[in-house]
Amino acid sequence: MIRPRSILALMMSFLMAFLVSCSSVEAKVPTTYTSAQIQQIQRSVPTLTELRSRMDNLGTLIQKRNWVDTRTYIHGPLGDLRGAMKSVSASLLPKEQQKAVDLTKSLFADLVNIDIAAKDLDYAKVTSSYRKAVDHFDAFLQLIPKA
């Protein structure tokens, strides 16, 4: 014979599951930056500006067709780029966060293409990928809120 206590527990669990599934908690998505968020993001701006100037140095190496130094430069002085971009991306508003993540992925795909093309000594592909990388980096920098 089934105990009344177990039936009551079963009915209560169904009731709780129903109530939880019907409830809707809407998370409030922020639409503006707080001053603390802007300060945190602005601390990364000098690093990103320095890395952007390193991209210009990469362009100089590409123009000189110095393939060994081009590949080394991507892995060396530009090695901090991914961490800096991820840090800033995480601090952006949700609507801009996805754009920043996509631009970061695109930039690194471009850098990989530059590396492969430099290994293959393909000047046309290197310059094309370099222009795309610079465009993606500049678009990323446009997402950063101004102080």
Structural commentary:
This protein is mainly α and 147 residues long. Helix content is 78%, strand content 0%. The protein has 6 helices and no strands. The chain has helices at 4-22, 35-63, 67-75, 81-91, 94-119, 123-142. It is elongated and about 85 Å long.
Feature tags:
mainly alpha; elongated; Four Helix Bundle (Hemerythrin (Met), subunit A); single chain
Count of strand segments:
0
- CATH architecture call: Up-down Bundle
Share of β-strand residues = under 5%
Which class best fits the helix and strand makeup?
mainly alpha
Strand/helix succession? HHHHHH
Give me a quick take on this structure.
The chain is mostly helical and 147 residues long. It is built from 6 helices and no strands. It has one domain (33-142): Oxygen-evolving enhancer protein 3 (PsbQ), four-helix up-down bundle (Four Helix Bundle (Hemerythrin (Met), subunit A)), CATH 1.20.120.290.
What is the fold's blueprint, element by element?
Blueprint: H1 4-22, H2 35-63, H3 67-75, H4 81-91, H5 94-119, H6 123-142
